[in-house]
Every structure is written in C-alpha cells, then in structure tokens.
Specification:
Layout lengths: L10 E5 L3 H12 L3 E5 L3 H21 L8 H6 L1 E4 L10 E4 L5 H11 L8 E4 L6 H5 L8 E5 L9 E6 L5 H13 L3 E6 L6 H17 L5 H12 L5 H8 L1 H15 L8 H8 L16
Parallel strand pairs: 1-2, 1-4, 2-3, 4-5, 5-6, 7-8
Antiparallel strand pairs: 6-7
Helix pairs in contact: 1-2, 7-9, 7-10
Keywords: Oxidoreductase
Protein name: 3-hydroxyacyl-CoA dehydrogenase NAD-binding domain-containing protein
InterPro entries: 3-OHacyl-CoA_DH (IPR022694), 3-OHacyl-CoA_DH_NAD-bd (IPR006176), 3HC_DH_C (IPR006108), 6-PGluconate_DH-like_C_sf (IPR008927), 6PGD_dom2 (IPR013328), NAD(P)-bd_dom_sf (IPR036291)
Length: 290
C-alpha cells in the first residue's frame, strides 16, 4: 500500500493522542507520512496504538477510497513517544491537546524552541483563538488553525483558520499538507468557534437544555433531526461522538469570549461531565456504549 506520489511533508509531528490526535495520526500515516505522535502518558500512547489499529481496519471497511490499507505498514510509520525532543526533525506540527488554554499554552511554549524555525504549527481546536496561541510562539506568522472533524480519516474537508499574523504562505503550506491527506480546506477568519462550532456548539447546548427541561428525551431530539432534516446524526449523538467534555470546554470558551448569555453552558451538560459521562470515549454519554 506504499503511496507512489512524492510527499512534500515526509515527517509530521502530532501532539496529543486523544480522539482527534489519534485520527490525525492515522490519516497522516495512511497517506504515507511518517508521524511522530507525542503525548505525556505511555498509557495513552498504548491506547492510541490500539485505536489506530482498529481505526485502520474500520477505514478499510467503511472508507470510500479504493486505497488499500495495511495495519502493519500504517503503524510502522508512527513513532509513539513521550519525548518532545523527537519533534526536532519534523516538517509540520499538528497539535491536538485538550481545549483548555493553560494546557495548550504550555505545549506551544515547549515545542517552539524544539522545532525548526521554518516549521508551521497547526492548532486543532474547536474554539480557542489561533491568534492567542500564536502569541506564545516566536513564529506567529507560521501558526494557523486546522479544525479537523471526527472521525478524521473519513472526513474530506477541514476548516482552516487564519490568525491575525498568519501569512498567505502559511495558509498555502497548510493546504498543501491537507491535499497530501486527500482533504479540501475552507479558510475562515479567527473568531471564537470559527464557523462550524459557533453554530454546532449552540445547537448541541440547546439540545441538552431540551433534555434537561424534559421537553423530549435524547433519543427523540435526535430522531427529529434525523427524520425531519435527514441529518445522519442527531445533535446529542454528535455530542457523544465529539466528547461531552470537549463540548463543555468549547461552550465555556465561547461564553468567556463573547460575554453573551446565549452561550451559557447547560447545567445538565456540566453535571454529566463531572460524573464522567463523556460520550463514546468513556462508554456512556446520552447513550450507553458499554
């Protein structure tokens, strides 16, 4: 299954081995890139290895591409490590850590002196400002947003965000990497939530309010969206897929950024996250996956 085309980005650093980081790493490796997947936990990296193995098999079953994938070949292209210094030779970095500013800030302060000066940083985020991330690096013109959708290998498009200092050359560099991943890009400006999540997070949060207020069950809320609008998934199924903790953090960023009550997080969403009901990744959210 070795790709025959010439790649501009032979080695890509992926920081964070959560749901999105795993998907990005799998997609990159499937499209022929060597990946340095960094996380702070060996346990998380071991889980990531298993999830990528399962993800490649699922891609082979459900992917629309005629491309054949081999689990062993894909895994051979990925270096699983807790050593950030392994990012010193990569050509591009995609960061995917949790949606909490102190954690993201620490990551960029750590990788900025390690990576070569010409390397572009892509922030995979639902809502955090790209301009704010760029401000903690010495390369603000080389920082852009890449909002991947889950599951990454099956999604053909990425929302690309232009920060205040992001240059056209950086946007073009990001587009070229996405093209190597067989993905198209839509470029938008840097406002909290960008386009997709400014709409989606409000929809999900309001759907949770409907359940909290006993207007309808989670199943019936989703049934209306699927049956009436022909959506493939309802808002609460989507919330479980993304992760309820990620939904809450994103809503909190929007609430803080706009100072507008329409972004206030639903108390039921907070309670479920506090209870460890994070959706599919924890085995239970609005639905039971155990």
């Amino acid at each position: 299954m070795a790709p025959t085309r010439t790649l501009e980005f032979t080695s890509v650093g992926v920081v964070g081995a959560g749901v999105m980081g795993v998907g990005v790493a799998q997609d990159l490796a499937q499209t022929g890139h060597h990946v340095v997947l960094v996380d702070i936990s060996d346990n998380v990296l071991e889980r990531a290895r298993k999830e990528i193995r399962n993800g490649v098999r699922a891609f082979a079953l459900f992917g629309k591409s005629a491309q054949k994938v081999d689990v062993k070949e894909v895994l051979k292209r990925i270096t699983f490590t807790t050593d950030y210094a392994r990012l010193s030779d990569v050509d591009f970095v995609i960061e995917n850590v949790t949606e909490k500013w102190p954690i993201k800030k620490e990551v960029y302060e750590r990788i900025d002196p390690i990576c070569r000066p010409e390397v572009v940083f892509a922030v995979d985020t639902s809502a955090i400002s790209i301009t704010r991330v760029a401000s903690v690096t010495k390369r603000p013109s080389q920082v852009l947003g890449m909002h991947f959708m889950n599951p990454v290998p099956l999604k053909p498009m990425v929302e690309v965000i232009r920060g205040f200092h992001t240059t056209p050359e950086t946007i073009d560099t990001g587009k070229r990497l996405l093209a190597e991943m067989n993905k198209a890009a839509v470029v938008v400006e840097d406002v909290p939530g960008f386009v997709s999540n400014r709409v989606l997070m409000l929809t999900i949060n309001e759907a949770v309010f409907l359940v909290q207020d006993r207007v309808a069950s989670a199943a019936d809320v989703d049934k209306i969206f699927k049956g009436c609008f022909e959506h493939k998934m309802g808002p609460l199924e989507t919330a479980d897929l993304i992760g309820l903790d990620t939904i809450l953090y994103s809503i909190e960023v929007l609430y803080e950024s706009f100072n507008d009550d329409k972004y206030r997080p639903c108390p039921l969403l907070k309670k479920m996250v506090d209870a460890g009901l994070h959706g599919r990744k924890s085995g239970r959210g609005f639905y039971d996956y155990s």
